[in-house]
Amino acid sequence: MSGLEEKELVRRAAEEDDREAFARLISRYQNGVFGLLHRLLGGTNEVEDVAQNVFLSAYRGLRAFRGQASFGTWIYRIAYNQACSALRRLRSRRAREMPQIQDEENGRQDEPTDSKTPDPEQQTIRKQVWEAVSELPPASQAVVEMYYNQGLKYPQIAEALDLPLGTVKTHLHRARAQLREILTGA
Q1: What's the mean pLDDT in 137-159?
Q2: Each residue of 31-78: pLDDT tens digit?
Q3: CATH class belonging to 110-186
Q4: Which of 73, 140, 144, 169 has a CA between 20 and 30 Å from the CA of residue 16?
């Protein structure tokens, strides 16, 4: 989908309440939104609920979308904000429900298996890397997810996360260093 086609779909969805145009926009970005939410929220049951809230918020806010950023950048920002809110709610709920008990999150699966990588050794390495990513702070996780899995460029990530460009680069640089430490045990 070209930038012009995307802008036309946004216009039709916002001005004409064209649900088919909105559905086409969502279908283009839903895998990326789910990937980002899965990365930030882990294996919680919240991912689908938060994703629905993201798409609903995007639909409701579409008339206010000014088009200064791409629709993708805008919806990733909504997803990041919704994920941060969900994390705060989850932490608060856990603190109330189990004040002295550490939740081991048995059965947590941080990364879906990659059907393109049939080699079990590569799958194991990939799983270890993404488990290490889950140990990073949420902002660093988001930057890593957007850069490596979503293929966004630094300016798009900066806009989506409302961070200065230099901060995005710093997050990614520090995340790589932290991952090196985690994975090598150094």
Answers
A1: 88
A2: 999 999 988 887 667 899 999 999 999 999 998 888 888 899 999 999
A3: mainly alpha
A4: 73
- 17: number of Cβ within 10 Å: 12
CA distances from residue 177 to 13, 141, 164, 185, 186 in whole angstroms, order as listed: 43, 13, 20, 12, 11
Helix, strand and coil percent figures for the chain, each rounded to 5: 75, 0, 25
Where do the structural domains in the chain lie, given as residue ranges?
A: 1-107, 110-186
End-to-end CA distance of the chain: 44
Which architecture, in CATH terms, is 1-107? Orthogonal Bundle (1.10)
d(CA 161, CA 61): 17
Collect all residues with Cβ–Cβ distance below 8 Å to 180 and sequence separation of at least 6.
186
Tell me the Ramachandran region of residue 106: left when phi exceeds 0, alpha when psi lies from -120 to 50, beta otherwise: beta
The token pair that represents 39 in the structure block: 């990365």
CA 43 to chain CA centroid, nearest Å: 13
DSSP assignment string, 53-107: HHHHHHHHHGGG--SSS-HHHHHHHHHHHHHHHHHHHHHHHHHHH-SS-----TT
pTM to 2 decimals? 0.64
> Could you report the per-residue pLDDT of 149-170, keeping only the tens digit for each?
888 899 999 988 888 999 999 9
